[in-house]
Amino acid sequence: MTVEIKVPPLGESVTEATVGKWSKKVGDSVKVDDLLVELETDKVTLEVTASTSGVLEAISFDTGSSVTVGTVLGKLKEGAVASASPAPAPTAVSAVAAAPNVTVGISDNVMPSARKMMAENGLAASNVPGTGKDGRILKGDVINALENPASNSSAQSSTRSEERVKMTRLRKRIAERLKESQNTAAILTTFNEVDMSNIMAMRNLYKDSFEKKHGVKLGFMSFFVKAAVAALKEIPAVNAEIDGDEIVYKNYCDIGVAVGTEQGLVVPIVRDADKKSFADIEKEIVAYGKKAREGKLTMSDLSGGTFSVSNGGVYGSLLSTPIINPPQSGILGMHKTMERPVAVNGKVEIRPMMYLALSYDHRIVDGKEAVTFLVRIKECIENPERLLFDL
Fold this sequence. Notes:
This protein is an alpha+beta fold. Helix content is about 30%, strand content about 25%.
């Protein structure tokens, strides 16, 4: 029996995806739950697995194709067994090599009319720049190469080259969201700096016992998330959003934590961060990081969020102006911790300092509120005991 491989539901408001890499090819044996193909949406990468054992009978869409929910991606022949590999057919190279006055190396990326003309004139594919789709060599390309051998030669020897790569859906969605943020919000950024001495000392003092008890390392991100929660409670406008002509104040704190992946930046949500312990937050961030790297984040992992935290310091950023993740009204940017000379009680001391940036929507957050918000975070980080006593 033939089983259709269909595009599964992609999540709320997502109807289209791009076909990613196929893990199996036509004729391969497949077992239940084997990965067949990956689908890229504008938010996550989904894995389509086999619902039954058999042989992959057909692939309907190649990598890069756009598909919608319910589209048949291919077909499985249930219960079938892959046949032994047939003897390889004579290659194009050997066939061409047998003909007189023909240069080998003509690839499958050559149109038939162009192939015939190249064979007649002893031209190799490597000497004919293709101008067709995906670099295909057309008959006109061969004519141009024959009429302009000098320019063709120089073009081939030039090191100035270009490559066009289609944007992934995730990258396109990131671009759309960032531009949407700049077009709709009145974004302003305020800065401060924080002395990391006390928080680093506390972390060094308790990191071993913390990891032993909770099974996760004690990082700085949990401190900043808890500090953001404390500041959001004091300045609720930063935790709000605009909906039409209304301001929606959130009585909960769902903190988005930016995670960098090979495909782009994603922002999974630590929900109810105001009710979670340091250990709970660290465990959730570690779990999200692992899922992000493996491309296994779900739509629910990325949906919602009332405020975001982004740590550009892990890449060496000293200072930046983060962009708000709409419809949120604020984002905290962390940066690299560097030892700098600072004035302490009238004396110059070398301290580990970090610049902090708060980008906010000036439509609902006033400058005074934004500055106060960032000062509260600074106070919580420089005096972490304030977080313990809810001060």
